[in-house]
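Handout, section B. The chain below has 126 residues.
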Amino acid sequence: QVQLVESGGGLVHAGGSLRLSCAISGRINPTDVVGWYRQPAGAQREVVASTTTGRFHNTGFTNYADSVRDRFTISRDIAKNMVYLQMNNLKPEDTAVYYCNVKTETQLTNLLRGTWGQGTQVTVNS
């Protein structure tokens, strides 16, 4: 069974950077989608970035929410079973609890499905 543990959150000033890490234990299939989500206080959870290697060569993808494109980068270290979210030029509106998530192909239609970590708080001061 897959388990996820996030780390790397904290308090940062606007314009600063943070790197979130997600340690994955258990086996993930090439078609599983690994993603970062966030949930601001009093708001719904939303996807920030997601990626998959795909079953065959050149069938993987990486997607970003419009609000973070060109500022955030999702990456995977498959050998270490880690997923990262590099966040640059942070803004106060990026303040949220950030969650790591893994979804199988059949879970992709429901944002709340899949395996979740416990979350890590990111706070950006203006």
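Note. Residues 32 and 104 are 5 Å apart (CA to CA). Compare this with the example in section A.
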